[in-house]
């Protein structure tokens, strides 16, 4: 894939996601190529299983991009009949996005999950996810993505029977992309709106909508897809315009063996059989029924095998062959029951896969939590600090919130170990951890960590210079004023503190830690038990 050398990550993401609405084969290739660039070599997972992105060690920004691309691929997979895998993988990515505050990624995940549950006939879960998409989508997003969010909600509302609300969201979506001539989203919106009006019994509105769809396709020389042909034909059939319905569906006969979407062709053939039956052309109806049955059976399309059984019964009845009609109705009933069981099973498989993914995530998060905690003090450790300080620094450098850090070192800690024992030293470290945890909790999202030995770190999100001065002085005072006598038998415990601010002292983790470390050195050099916010010595000075 040719990528413009000056194209930003956001612009490239928007372009690749836009391809979903233009050419899904191109979108697949573009996403795969980019994933390989990011170092995700096993793009499709091991033996077809989803990639576990919690184990993909790439930087935060690149990690979010990789997961956006995987959600795109999962959505394409969903449109091609693989909802079970899509749901489990996207749920896993959603958990990562929630943990890292990646709102745009969360909205993409909910979009796919909403479509999956709408696809397998669970309107409650579909609506739940569709609402979350629209809660999360930012108004700064491109109109195409906002329209996609409205489309997801409109589909879910229509499936739940809320036709008025569904219609309103379809119209909102259409207004957002009214001038978008490159993608197919306008055609999908009009198709789904027309079908919703048809289901609601609003025949005039349905007819107006499908004629708008036809006019738009003709004006832009865009062929009408098979699902849209089926929608248009159903509306024409209801309006008594049988010849027009037939003409709209004839391509289904011609392309039945070659069309890449047999589900759409089967839907169109069932409707065409009904058109012929309504016209009294029962021989033509039977030929189409036989063709549809062969196609649906060859692709395992249980829904359309069931529908063609119903149409077969209707055709026999129209031909006054009541014995065969009765047998066909019995077959239809049995297949209808089987279809309901199959749909329930499909929902069950998806929910089970999502449950197993959630259980696996909880287990991995438990081990992750253990790996990111200091066993002595239960504070976060350096591994946790490295990841979260990097995230905060990146966001601050991109215009996000400021924050402050403080490196904290216990004064004369060796004297406590030597004079009283290492067990007492450990107790001092544990108690200091409790004091620092309380200090961190005074600021929303504050973090207390032990870096190693007697060295600790406080991170205060959103704290500017004035608040940092106040909060870190409080922490120093809390340590010095604590009654250490029961633990140290009268030996005092104090701490020296060096402070750094982002973005003033840098937007790289290494720059911030170096600045705080230098100021910690100055605090110890100048008498200990103090907080130092500025210093002018060389960063290479040793403590």
Q: What features would you describe in this structure?
A:
This protein is mainly alpha-helical and 543 residues long. Helix content is 68%, strand content 6%. The protein is built from 22 helices and five strands. Strands 2-3-1-4-5 form a five-stranded mixed β-sheet. Strand 4 (495-502), helix 22 (509-525) and strand 5 (531-532) form a beta-alpha-beta unit. The protein is elongated, with a radius of gyration of 32 Å.
Q: Please, what is the oligomeric state?
A: single chain
Per the principal axes of the C-alpha atoms, what is the gross shape? elongated
Percent range of helical residues:
55-70%
Count of DSSP strands: 5
Give the overall average pLDDT.
Answer: 83
- In angstroms, what is the radius of gyration? 32 Å
User: What's the order of the H and E elements?
Assistant: HHHHHHHHHHHHHHHHHEHHEEHHEHE
**Largest sheet data:** 5 strands, mixed
Low-confidence stretches: 45-60, 357-365, 536-543
Q: How much of the sequence is in beta strands? A: 5-15%
Distance between the termini: 53 Å
User: Order of strands in the sheet with the most strands?
Assistant: 2-3-1-4-5
Structural class: mainly alpha
Number of helices: 22
